[in-house]
Amino acid sequence: MKRFIQNIKNIWKVEELRKRILLTLSLILIYRVGSFIILPGVDYSALEKAQAGGQNTLETLLSLFSGGGFSNASIMALGIMPYISASIIMQLLGMAVPAVQKMQNEGESGRKRINNFTRILTIIICGLQAPSYLSLYVAQKGAMPLDASTFWWVQTILVLIAGSMFAVWLGERITDKGIGNGISLLITVGILARLPEAFIAEIGISSGNLIKIVLEIVAFMLVILGTILIVQGVRKIPLNTAKRVVGARDVDAQGTRSYLPIKVNASGVMPIIFAQAIMTIPVMLFSGKGNDSGFFQRALSDVYGVGYNTLLAVLIIVFTYFYTAIMINPRKIADDLKRSGGFIPGVRPGEETAEYIDTLVSRITFPGSLSLAIVAILPAIAHIVGVNDAFAMFFGGTSVLIMVGVVLDTLQQIESYLLNRHMDGLMDGTRVRGRRTENELSGI
Question: Using the 8-state DSSP alphabet, how is residue 244 labeled?
Fold first, then answer.
């Protein structure tokens, strides 16, 4: 406790860090307030009455990522997810479209152009999602105004688009002027905002059973620790750099020794997001198509069923290999190493290096994909053992991976400020490492 208090004092002493943290908290507060401002004309009492009967898992998940804005029918109901979808699309286009690849290789100017296209694509996605949200969610809950005119539809769609873009603007301001990755922080805050409510509900259900509550807290902490191991896990490939010669003398006669970090989970949370998105498509396609399709729909709608979770785990493993292949290009890494004079001891530069890296990535991707699959089905396991649905969502899946990754990144930035001013780090005897290492693949 004494060290914790001293760390807080050190953080407060650094003026730039103090200003950045205060700005970040202020912008997060604005985002949280916006998630409770209801859309004009929406009957919130009817919305509350419809929600009293419970939400399906998809609604719970969307509400989780929007900090409650989705279920509240707020001006930020779409949240930050359209921007995330647009970023994923641009990233995939960068692997297939030469024009986007060219922009990615143009440095800062190319990054700005890609960001502009991402914002434009975000507006388009919001324009498509907003009418669907109003007709498929707000209208079904009976919260639509009785005299909903064309003007109301147009203004409400524009408000939803503006709310989502304002959330994007807040996230970018946090990234530029605050601390941490703004977009990721907004998602994390939305997730954490639901945790106290879910935990209190679990205490109410398990009232009088103190042992069960303690065991659930211990299990939750073990899940967090396991997720940290998955996020932080790195296979270090030793590298040697050829000696440098300046003039007639060797600057570094022995060369330098470093390592090439290959992450066990190089794909991050993307395989789970892709797999869950794929799982929702058959449910929408076969909705109301007869008894057989109804059975198929019920099987895929039961997120705690064996069939659903088995298929989800298989899809996550497949998408992990797919996304890792997109993220890590062994041939490009080998070429970059060859140009920079680096080589793996015992492996010839060029084609053999590419094959060696490809083999190693394939070997470590399997345990990484298997770990992701286990994390994804943990909420179903928690539900089976008696944890309520709201609290079970925090025992795995995208929520835990996002929270752990963002918290580690933010702590790493704070610690960097402290160490640059010759202060103690946040932890004694070690350093906080975020999801990105110093020798990231793109920096070789």
Answer: P
